[in-house]
Structure formats: structure tokens, C-alpha cells
Amino acid sequence: MERRERADAARNRQAILRAAEELLRRHPPEQVSVERVAAAAGVGKGTVFHRFGSRTGLMLELMSERAREFEQAFTEGPPPLGPGAEPVERLVAFFADLAVLAARNGNLVSAIEHARVTTKAHGEQRREENPIYRSWHRHVSRLIAEGRSDVDAEQIAHMLLGTLHMEPIASQLRAGQHERLAAGFADLVSGLLR
Amino acid sequence: MERRERADAARNRQAILRAAEELLRRHPPEQVSVERVAAAAGVGKGTVFHRFGSRTGLMLELMSERAREFEQAFTEGPPPLGPGAEPVERLVAFFADLAVLAARNGNLVSAIEHARVTTKAHGEQRREENPIYRSWHRHVSRLIAEGRSDVDAEQIAHMLLGTLHMEPIASQLRAGQHERLAAGFADLVSGLLR
């Protein structure tokens, strides 16, 4: 009986996350309410709050889940993203996937940034202390250092990761475009490491 | 008599701009009031308002003046920043000077960004429509295209110019540090163009 309850809970959790993901793909984040997610997932509103604490908790969990999948792919997955390829190939693959992730999750990122602004009074987390950012920065720094021992890999990793957030790149990503950004990364990284 | 009045006005204008510049170098922008600038310049508060319209007008004029000097240097000044050097050398010089400008003017940029946020209701200007940004972007794009005809020069120029504004680079600049950023630009640009 207890095992069945846990299985139900896991199924509900997945259904809620998938429903939120699907809604965020098609609607601006401010229109994706807990009520709407609950209805799309076929659960009660109380179940969403019980599992995720709040709407922000749900958004953060969705972003964390995607970031975990991406991290697993670049640390343990097949090459060229994962181990086994040259640093330059791994970096080109990393930034191409990061551009796709940023373009696909533009609404989600907005929803989280919005949540952060509104909870600013409780202390804002600095970007470089965010565990997701730190994991990306560590990965990129290591690969740059592997390919070029004579450059300031940590600084260049911050510079490359920073390019996603400024206009007009941010607008491209919000519009779902990632090819130009991925090509720009590929040229910068190939130039640096070859 | 009229000529003398014009000369006085020009001298006042310069004295006010230099006083504001000096105060912004030593104090956080919120402490640099029109009263304080006027006192340091040896003019009345009314003269500042008469010349620049408002505190924001003064800040914008100061930023514009520096940007004009910089633009003149990279379009007509001596090499390697100005014409006569290879594209890669000109780009390395441009980004080194831009890093210095950004580090020296961190307080000024904050003062202007703050002014912009508070006047957001009157319609915010998009970064890529700002004439200063456009002039920098045009210059960088052209030099990249001259050095590498096979890359998306406009996109890469936006990416490189965007790196100044994200954390932790923005914090380095606010602390007056520009060497690491300049070195990072030099490695990225040299890799791309050599």
C-alpha cells in the first residue's frame, strides 16, 4: 500500500512537471498559474502546492530538472558533448546545446527571474553562486584550460557564458532562435582552441 | 561682450563636467548631487540646471562626451586603435580601451542606468538603439568582417560587447579592474582572426 502511494506521488510529480513544461512552451509565464498546471496535469491545486510549495518552487524544480539532465549529458553522456572528444568539439557541442536550452526555456527563465525579483527583499542570490551557473562555468573553464594552458580560462568562461543574457541575443533566444548564437560560439571557441 | 559671454559659458560647461567626473570617480553616484557638482565647479546650482536641464542630463552629457572622444580615437586616431593597423590589432586595442572606459566610468554608467530605470514609464530605449552602442557595434563588426569573411561578424560583435554587463565581469569593472577583461578579449579576438 505504501509503495503504491509512493508510485502515485512520483507519477503525479512527473505529470505536474510535464504539464508546466508544455504550458510554458505555449504561453507567456504570467499566464501559467498553479490552477492551470493542476488542471492540465489532472490533479488538484492542493497537490501542486503539496509537492512544490509554491508556483516559484515548481518553476525552480522544472529548471533544476532540465539542468540536471544537461549536466549528466555533458559529464557522462556520449561524445562530442560528453567525454571522449577533443576539448574544442566538446565546447562547441556544449554551447550549441546551451543555446537550444536557453531558447526552449526562455519563458521558464523569465518566470524564475520574475520570481527572484519579487522575492528580492529576502536576499537575492548572486548569479555566480547559483549551482547551475557554477557547474557550467566549471565545465567550460576546464575544457578551455585543457585546450589552451596559456589563457585565463576562468575569465573567458565567464565572458562566454555571459553573452546569453544581453540584448539583442536575449531577444533572439526569447524568439526561439538559437542557430546564430550557436554558430557564434563555435567560431569563438574554435578560434581560441585551434 | 557677447563673445565673452559665450567663452564664459563654455568655460562653465567644462568646469561642471570635470567636477562631475572627479566626484563620480571618488563617490557612489547617489552621493553626487547637482548641489555638490555646482559647489565643486564654483558655479551656482541654477547654472548647472540651465546648461544641462537636470542631473540626468548632466550625466548623459558626460557619458556622451567620453564616448565621442573614444569614437574619434578609434575612427581617426593613431594606430593600433585607429586606422593603419591590422584588424586584429585594432580590435585588441579597442577592447582594451573599452575595458578601461567601462572600469573608469562604472559609477557614471550606474548613474545613467539608474536614471533610465526611474524614467522607464516614459519609454525605455533599447540598448541596440543607443547611438553609442551602435557606433561600437558597427566598428567591431566591420573589423571582424575584414579579418574573417566567413563568420557572422554582426552576431559575434553583439556577443563580445555583451560580455561587459554580466556578473562577475560587471563587478570587476565596478572595482576598477580591467586587465583580466582586456586579456580575455585579446585571446578571443586573436583566436578568431589569426
From TrEMBL, chains A, B:
Name of the molecule in the record? AcrR family transcriptional regulator
What are the coiled-coil residue ranges?
none
GO terms (molecular function) for this protein are: DNA-binding transcription factor activity; transcription cis-regulatory region binding
Residue ranges of the TM segments: none
The organism sits in which domain of life? Bacteria
Q: What organism does the record attribute this protein to? A: Nonomuraea jabiensis
InterPro entries the UniProt entry points to: Homeodomain-like_sf, HTH-type_TetR-like_transc_reg, HTH_TetR, Tet_transcr_reg_TetR-rel_C_sf
Pfam families with a match to the protein in the record: TetR_N
Ranges annotated as DNA-binding = 33-52
PANTHER family referenced in this protein's UniProt entry, alphabetically: HTH-TYPE TRANSCRIPTIONAL REGULATOR RUTR (PTHR30055), POSSIBLE TRANSCRIPTIONAL REGULATORY PROTEIN (PROBABLY TETR-FAMILY) (PTHR30055:SF209)
Q: Which UniProt keywords apply?
A: DNA-binding
Cite the PROSITE patterns for this sequence.
Answer: HTH_TETR_2
Domain HTH tetR-type, which positions?
10-70
